[in-house]
Amino acid sequence: MSLRILYDEHSGALSYLLADEAAHEAALVDPRSGDRPVLMALLDEAGLRLRWVLRTHEHHGHDDQPPGEFGRLLHLGAPVVQGARREGVCSVADGERLPLGAGFVQVLHTPGHTAHCQSYLWQDRMFCGDLLTADACPWQPRPALPAALWDSVQQRIFTLPDETLLFAGHERRARAVTTVLEQRRWSPHFAGLTRDGFFARVGPKPLHRRT
Known about the structure:
Layout: E1 2-7, E2 14-20, E3 25-29, H1 36-46, E4 49-54, H2 69-74, E5 80-81, E6 97-100, E7 103-109, E8 118-122, E9 125-127, H3 146-157, E10 165-172, E11 175-179, H4 180-186, H5 195-202
Parallel strand pairs: 3-4, 4-5, 9-10
Antiparallel strand pairs: 1-2, 2-3, 6-7, 7-8, 8-9, 10-11
């Protein structure tokens, strides 16, 4: 089993290649179509067959960045799994296990950053997009559904074992990976906050009327 991380310096976006070399199977988490030559080279070099393209979220109105992004992801040659439904998407149930080599990737519905966010648990590693980096996403620096985000993090992420590794959708302060224990204790958005305190920090900013 192996993991490769791809980083886009312009946007700070992170993509992941999960592989079971013994079974010659792989999955991509949040790939960018612009990285297709590199991704295909990595797969070919290791003799891997791409089983799944897993997307943690899709931004309504901003997904085609550049135009045609989703269509090019379909051309990677594997089912595209994401929470937001559209033509070409392979929709899966919450908790469903997608086979990958000798193991599986479990799909967890974790709305909040966007309405249809999903996270993917592979062994002791959770790929949770921008759930925990609530202000690092350039396309949506504030969560779409703060209440759902709080519940997703508290009930679906922080209930995992302390040592579970968490992989973000965008880097934060040059870091791509953290742990459940670290985020539960020191997250700038969740640690030590009440639900109301969280809403005050990340919710919509009030409009200031001119006098």
